[in-house]
Amino acid sequence: MKIDEINFRDPFILPVKSEGKYYLFGTTGITTWEGKPDGLDVYSSDDLVNWEGPFPAFRPNKDFWADQNYWAPEVHEWNGKYFMFASFKSEDRRRCTQILVSDKPEGPYVPHGSEHFTPKEWECLDGTFYVDKKGVPWMIFCHEWVQIEIGKMCAVKLSEDLTEPVSDPIDLFRATDAPWVRPVKEDHYFVTDGPFLYRAKNNELLMMWSSFGDKGYAIGLARSESGDVKGPWNHDDQPIFGKDGGHGMLFETFAGELKLVIHAPNDTPNERPMFFSVSEDNGTLSIK
User: Fold this and answer.
1) N or C: which end of the chain has fewer CB within 10 A?
2) CA angle 160, 94, 181 (to 5 degrees)
3) pLDDT averaged over consecutive 10-residue blocks of the chain (288 residues)?
4) Considering the entire predicted model, what is its pTM?
5) Secondary structure (3-state) at 146
6) Cα–Cα dist 190/146, whole Å
């Protein structure tokens, strides 16, 4: 199938060079907001044009605690295994990020360690993985606007085996710190979504993240003044992608080209993964 046949939100690409394959993970569009999801799926491709799937990457057993909002899975290789960071929720438990593990990039993935890697009393989502200059693993995640009105970007340090958080969360910034962000509704609800960290060629640490701007769902860039996860974080004045698309991540093709993948439009059930080539010049990213 072609990419425009795949109804995914929050797309994430894992290139596996040893296999010559790209793996595409994402939120299944049809069960994003309503209904009980079957699990999380994956597609594979060797050229980013022709895709096979869906294949089951994660299927919950009868004891798995969450039965709704299986959102934003992303997969990272760490110490010879593949770790999936994904958001889950149930009627009686708040949305959180949990980590799953597999020996293979396509899965099957099973729960790994703690059920909550974000505070149990918080509504959270979109955990992503970052390893600092000292080799310490972190998770960056969003404390949701649905609970606190102005969404926050937060970080927590993880154990070496990624089984549990080993620090209290720290606040990195609020949605309203970025000049391009507009309220999602009324005049005091502001979204933080989809963080993804990228070390630029000039060694600058960038964070791509999503909120709402003048033309709808959008992607902005934040820059760490210290060069590490704790920041402080400064924001570009304008989004890198500004019109009705977001939750992006960057990856390098097997040919060495930098690519951005997002979902657009931000409208269920019409959202699809979309790819863009990206140029990088002294820490400035531009969509070609």
Assistant:
1) C
2) 85
3) 96 98 94 88 98 97 95 98 97 96 98 95 98 97 98 98 98 98 94 98 97 98 98 98 97 98 95 98 94
4) 0.97
5) helix
6) 9
